[in-house]
Specification:
The complex is a heterodimer. Chain A is an alpha+beta fold. Chain A is built from 18 helices and 36 strands. Chain A has a ten-stranded mixed beta sheet with strand order 20-19-18-21-22-27-26-25-23-24. A seven-stranded antiparallel beta sheet of chain A has the order 28-29-32-31-30-33-34, with no helix packed on it. Chain A has a six-stranded mixed beta sheet with strand order 5-4-3-8-9-35. The model of chain A has no long low-confidence stretch (mean pLDDT about 90). In chain B, about 35% of the residues lie in helices and about 15% in strands. The chains are: A alpha+beta, B alpha/beta.
Chain lengths: ~750, ~280
């Protein structure tokens, strides 16, 4: 308001307009006039009787002030003006979208009770926006939640909307806005105004935002709802693999967002059975807490898991403390290749630990003498007949490789490159065990694999592998890692009561991305024992011992910890390995997005792929749809909008040049209303949406500039206007200040 | 006169026996060979046990020293075998052998234990329980150098206490244990070096527990767990460890018997380390 008082026009006029002098036809004459006046004033001041006694710099100041005033007057005579465009009244449309999703029923402020966000939006539109908007353009009112609907009934230009009722539906902010923009194609649309809390459940990714930007129409957003709900705790997200092997440890990653402090408890339930529970400390310093909870996958089948959060006292919304997820437990075999350089006990007991496992299929190759090898678990006579997989395709057929006490010279240069690419490009997992010929002692420091390992291999004059007794304990990361879970055997003492190890291989410095999961205590000093890191598409790990067999031989026969440790470690390493064909199901704005990723045997994006999906509804009826190539190579996708809530089975049939495969996934729709999650205003999204389209984010308390912003914006049908500036109070004030300054100086210097 | 002669001979025999017994007590029956257990190595471990019956049964005198039954071929057999394992394979055996009783707390640190000459063995219930737990954990027992029916019956009686309800089975030559490193076509019969000079491969029945029955053919017999994995083998009517111990007693013994002992030993150890 102050800006307009001083400068006669809104700031948007200056931001969009072009400055010019309306009376200037021959600029040269005006310049000559300005020069003559300047020279005359300067000469008068320098030679004048009244200023003769002043110092040189004082005369310069006086002359400068007088010249500035004279030039200002000449400038006003030249007719300063702004050339800009404004909306042509009555020729344009302005679309106003009011969010009626579930979260708009929540209070507009953080206190109890009070006006809802929807009512606050309606009030704002009726009382402060509608009169000004109606003068500018034809206002088209829409309400939206999962989609937008034009409201023609109950709206008057004079008073705005009436009788807009809240819904319990979810929000699809970007798609709804885009559909409104689409509906005006061919019609002049000056702007879109969105009144929302920004609590979006749709896809507001960069790609969708870019599609919005492409319309070239500014979207102005007005945000409702508080930015903070004191005491509110919500289970914001649960990340869980779509499937898992039976009787394996599954890790779910939980995100808790809160404005509270105290202790919360998270639980996982399968129906009425409690699978796992964990306490989580909430601190006001960390509004987002990420934690993990590990539970047993159970037997084969589909599990509908409920993740519950019990917050500390003071929670505002109870509806956002629970999330349901589906987990498919199936017996999918994973192959791992164990290459060992010497007959030793660790080899025997690892083999025993995984024997009969439903998931792990062990193929091992052991060098028994310098010239002889011993193969176990091979599928046929050809497998590993040459000691190492003959080609990359065969190597990539394994999910995990375990390297034992085997010197680097055991492999050719090409095989070393393959080992590195097995991790980096195939996305496999590789575990290195300690031994006389492992790591640096085996000369691995000069191989390509050295770059992939989570520790530095520094050449050492002394052997790094030695017999030494040490007890094992998990690190903080190890306590929650699915690779190192023994907790359900003996509670917290499961690690402490294990027999000490009998060896250790000194490791080099840990790399920046490395995570230590287990450490071993030697005389009170911890040393890293199990270290992992992601590398390329895969994972590498180093276990700096080869005497875990003591955990089997020095415990009672019914103690399962040794077997559990190895099965868990290898299963999880296998789980992180990439699969050549994979299918994911996600919900997007009420639709199920089916995405199939297909790679060939060299794990490159596959060509000539066809895929279709058979969707089985909760009532057992079926829908078939084809998947079409997506943005990424080797990825096909389709979207399906379910008609009713429930569990949907999706069988995706993939066919590529190497064969056919059907992958089955399950997804539950409409299990819970996501509107209760993140119940505060999502100002960043509203800002991003506005800025991406050339609009602006506004608060309800300060929308006075909205009309001006629409008037001077560049979209819609517009007229050119010349706005004179000579009467601008700011200019007159400036000239007055210059003269006043000269007078004050003259008084001070005694030369009035 | 005849009675006097008999009495005199009896006294003379007793005196000689006492003399030998006293002399034997001055000879250390075993050599302390291992004071530190290096678990990064494959330790060759001999089981120490008690026998009954006095001289000739509980112990015997040979080459100027008294041997308790469990000590037969120990430790020279293990010294030589470790050396050959290192030469022939990529195994990393401990240089010095280890000996343990079945009831020792750290028996589990030795996943393969070796027992010899068990014909007169007398095991306690505690030893049976300890061996049962050891085997259930994945440990492996190799029993060698017991000949004839009576000595087999002695082992079988012990194993009935260790693994009730479990029956031994003959291990045929096509079992992988005979082919892990060296291809073997028959179960070798290795006689003690002192009997090998007679020309055959067997030992005389009189040298073993009565009734010995036939000692003509060597065999490997085994006890398996519920998953079909071997837990115990008995190399019956053969003395594999003597082939290791006596490898340097003339080239003919080495070439004819020790090589077979080593081939079988390498195969068995490799098998146990891989299954």
């Amino acid at each position: 308001m102050w800006f307009e008082t001083l400068f006669s026009y809104p700031a948007d006029a200056f931001a969009t307009g072009t400055f010019l002098f309306a009376n200037v036809v021959r600029p040269l004459w005006w310049l000559i006039a300005a020069g003559v006046v300047t020279a005359a004033i300067t000469g008068s001041v320098i030679t004048g009787v009244r200023t003769r006694s002043l110092a040189g710099w004082q005369r310069t100041v006086i002359a400068g002030l007088q010249v500035a005033v004279a030039v200002g007057v000449i400038g006003l005579l030249a007719g300063p003006a702004l050339q800009t465009t404004t909306l042509q009244p009555g020729a344009n449309n302005i679309a106003v979208l009011i969010d009626t999703s579930g979260s708009m029923s929540f209070p507009n402020t953080s206190g109890d009770g009070g006006q809802t966000r929807l009512n606050a939006a309606i009030d704002l539109l009726q009382q402060r926006l509608t009169p000004g908007l109606s003068d500018l353009a034809e206002v088209a009112l829409f309400t939206f939640n999962t989609s937008a609907v034009r409201r023609t009934v109950g709206y008057t230009a004079a008073h705005g909307p009436a009788a807009i009722e809240p819904t319990e539906a979810e929000t699809n902010l970007i798609a709804s806005t885009a559909s409104v923009l689409d509906s005006f194609k061919g019609a002049p649309l000056a702007a879109v105004i969105v009144l929302s809390d920004g609590a979006d459940n749709g896809d507001n990714s960069g790609a969708n935002m870019a599609a919005l930007t492409a319309h070239g129409v500014p979207v102005h957003t007005i945000g409702f709802g508080p930015h903070l709900l004191p005491g509110e705790v919500q289970l914001a997200d649960v990340q869980l693999a779509a499937d898992a092997p039976p009787r394996s440890q599954v890790t779910a990653r939980l995100v808790i967002e809160h404005t509270a402090s105290g202790e919360a408890v998270v639980r996982v339930r399968d129906g009425g059975s409690l699978l796992a529970a964990r306490r989580v400390r909430l601190s006001s310093n960390t509004p987002t807490v990420r934690t993990e909870i590990v539970f047993d996958s159970g037997s084969t089948g589909i599990r509908e898991l409920t993740f519950e959060l019990t917050p500390p006292p003071g929670d505002v919304l109870a509806e956002n403390n629970q999330i349901k997820r589906l987990l498919t437990v199936n017996e999918r075999r994973r192959r791992f290749l164990y290459l060992e350089g010497e007959p030793r006990w660790e080899y025997k007991f690892i083999r025993r630990a995984v024997a009969g496992d439903e998931v792990l299929e062990l193929v091992s190759w052991l060098r028994t003498t310098d010239r002889k090898t011993y193969r176990q678990g091979v599928a046929n006579e050809d497998e590993l007949a040459d000691g190492f997989p003959r080609d990359l395709e065969t190597l990539y057929g394994y999910d995990v490789i375990v390297l034992g006490s085997l010197a680097a010279t055991s492999f050719t240069e090409t095989q070393h490159v393959w080992l590195e690419s097995f991790v980096a490009e195939r996305g496999g997992s590789l575990l290195v065990l300690a031994g006389r010929e492992s790591l640096t002692d085996g000369g691995w420091d000069v191989t390509p694999l050295a770059a992939a390992l989570p520790i530095s291999l520094d050449r050492d004059a002394t052997p790094t592998y030695r017999p030494v007794s040490g007890t094992v304990r998990p690190t903080r990361d190890g306590l929650v890692s699915p690779l190192t879970q023994l907790a359900d055997v003996e509670g917290g003492d499961a690690w402490a009561t294990l027999p000490p190890l009998g060896d250790y291989q000194r490791l080099g410095a840990l790399k920046p991305a490395a995570t230590t999961l287990l450490e071993v205590m030697h005389g009170g000093t911890p040393s890293p024992l199990l270290v992992t890191q992601p590398y390329g598409l895969g994972t590498t790990a180093v276990l700096a011992t080869a005497t875990t067999w003591r955990w089997q031989m020095r415990t009672p026969p019914d103690d399962p910890r040794h077997g559990l440790f190895w099965r868990q470690l290898l299963r999880q390493l296998a789980e992180t390995a990439q699969r050549p064909r994979n299918v994911s199901l996600t919900m997007d704005g009420g639709g199920i997005v089916v995405r199939a990723s297909v790679r060939n045997k060299l794990f490159e994006p596959a060509a000539n792929v066809a895929a279709n999906a058979v969707i089985t509804h909760p009532d057992r009826s079926e829908t078939r749809l084809n998947l079409t190539p997506g943005d990424l190579p080797g990825v096909l996708a389709a979207r399906y909008v379910p008609s009713a809530p429930g569990i949907y089975r999706v069988d995706v049939n993939i066919e590529d040049p190497t064969g056919k495969e059907t992958i089955t996934r399950f997804i539950r729709t409409g299990a819970q209303n996501r509107e209760f999650f993140r119940p505060v205003q999502n100002e960043p999204l509203l800002r991003r949406m506005a800025e991406a389209t050339g609009g602006r984010y506004w608060t309800p308390d300060d929308v006075t500039g909205l009309t001006a912003a629409l008037t001077f914006a560049s979209s819609g049908i517009r007229t050119v206007e010349l706005l004179p500036l000579w009467h601008m109070p700011a200019l007159f004030g400036l000239l007055m200040l210059l003269k006043l300054g000269e007078w004050v100086l003259r008084r001070a210097w005694g030369r009035v | 006169m005849r009675l006097v002669l008999i009495a005199a001979l009896t006294l003379l025999t007793q005196a000689l026996f006492a003399l030998v017994a006293n002399a034997a007590s001055e000879i250390p029956s075993t050599i302390e060979v291992n004071v530190f257990t290096d678990l990064t190595e494959v330790n060759l471990t001999r089981v120490e046990y008690d026998s009954l019956g006095g001289r000739g049964r509980e112990y015997y005198v040979f080459e100027g020293r008294v041997w308790l039954r469990w000590e037969t071929d120990y430790p020279q057999a293990e010294y030589n075998f470790a050396k050959r394992l290192r030469q022939l394979t990529r195994m990393n055996p401990a240089v010095s052998p280890t000996r343990r009783r079945l009831t020792d707390d750290d028996l589990g640190d030795f996943p393969l234990i070796f027992m010899s000459d068990v014909g007169y063995a007398n095991f306690s219930t505690e030893e049976e329980d300890a061996l049962r737990a050891y085997l259930e954990n994945g440990g492996f027992l190799w029993v060698d150098d017991f000949w004839g029916d009576a000595e087999w019956a002695s082992l079988e009686r012990f194993m009935r206490g260790v693994l009730p309800g479990n029956r031994w089975r003959e291990i045929s030559i096509d079992h992988p244990i005979f082919h892990t490193v060296f291809e073997m076509e028959e179960m070798p019969q290795i006689p003690a070096e002192s009997f090998a000079g007679w020309g055959g491969t067997s030992e005389p029945p009189g040298a073993h527990k009565y009734p010995a029955g036939s000692l003509a053919h060597a065999s490997m017999r085994g006890y398996f767990d519920d998953d079909g994995r071997l837990m115990v083998i008995g190399t019956h009517n053969t003395d594999v460890a003597d082939g290791w111990e006596r490898e340097s007693y003339g080239s003919w013994y080495f070439e004819r018997f020790s090589t077979k002992s080593y081939r079988l030993g390498v195969n068995v150890y490799t098998y146990v380390l891989t299954h």
